[in-house]
Design goal:
5-stranded antiparallel β-sheet
Length: 274
């Protein structure tokens, strides 16, 4: 049994400020270790339930936040920037399950700690088939393309609620409750890891009933930008259609191609976002 794990950082218990999860920040080293332990808890829980192979795709910031030698169960480690499939690089149809660890909510919804969708300087809102979508839902398009169920997400309660319509029945390890975008009530790190380990194990044990994401195809991603210049630039990419001054849409039958187009939009607009 193979598990693909995409790890962000903002959803880690105790993390509430950009400086805590920004490489080079004074507190980054400490919170980086908390993330490492949550990733390992997910791996350990899955291994206890029978999973044998793991690939961890480091998906936060510079995408080089974890210590490879400290990963549990000799998990493979995919790190570094400029990945064609970004947060979902490395997933293919050979995997049995997808885990999203330390994910966060989207900025357009309820208050969620360090909320954003790929690039907070450029993107104000993303909808998938008309529903508000955070990074987890967008990334689930790739899982759908390969026919792999997304069975675990960890982070705050908003993140768990936002992914549920796209991945019904997903197990959620809610390790903190958001108060504002910069405040949260977090579990003690040991309790957070215990919860993640338990939910990961339960997710693997229930895998026979799991299904790929429930996203109707053809699917449409609607992206609202923070200013009109960004929306205009996005339309330079084939398949991106202007909806209004701030909004573009992308529609496709192939969920992987749809995701890649979205990532291209993100990377292109990042250059002029302020």
């Amino acid at each position: 049994m193979k598990v693909f794990l995409s790890s962000d950082m903002e959803g880690t218990a105790g993390v509430v400020d950009w400086e805590q999860c920004r490489p080079g920040g004074p507190e980054y080293g400490y919170y980086r270790e908390l993330l490492q332990q949550e990733v390992n808890a997910a791996i350990e829980g899955a291994a206890e339930a029978g999973a044998r192979e793991f690939l961890v795709n480091d998906s936060h910031s510079s995408m080089a936040n974890l210590r490879p030698d400290a990963l549990a169960h000799r998990a493979r480690y995919l790190s570094g920037r400029h990945k064609p499939m970004y947060m979902m690089q490395g997933l293919d149809a050979s995997y049995d399950a997808v885990f999203f660890v330390s994910y966060h909510g989207s900025m357009d919804g309820a208050a969620a700690t360090l909320s954003h969708t790929y690039n907070p300087r450029a993107i104000a809102e993303v909808r998938l088939n008309g529903r508000p979508a955070g990074e987890a839902a967008i990334n689930a398009l790739v899982a759908l393309g390969y026919g792999v169920p997304v069975v675990l997400i960890t982070g705050d309660e908003v993140t768990a609620e936002q992914i549920e319509p796209f991945c019904p029945g997903i197990r959620a390890a809610v390790v903190k409750t958001s108060v504002t975008r910069y405040a949260a009530d977090s579990l003690h790190p040991e309790q957070a890891r215990e919860l993640i380990r338990q939910q990961a194990g339960d997710a693997v044990r229930a895998l026979s009933a799991a299904r790929p994401p429930a996203i109707t195809l053809p699917a449409t991603l609607t992206v609202r930008f923070r200013n009109a210049d960004l929306a205009e630039l996005a339309t330079w990419i084939g398949g991106v259609v202007r909806e209004d001054g701030l909004t573009v849409s992308i529609t496709g039958e192939d969920p992987i191609r749809l995701y890649r187009t979205f990532v291209t939009v993100v990377l292109l607009t990042r250059g002029i976002a302020e």
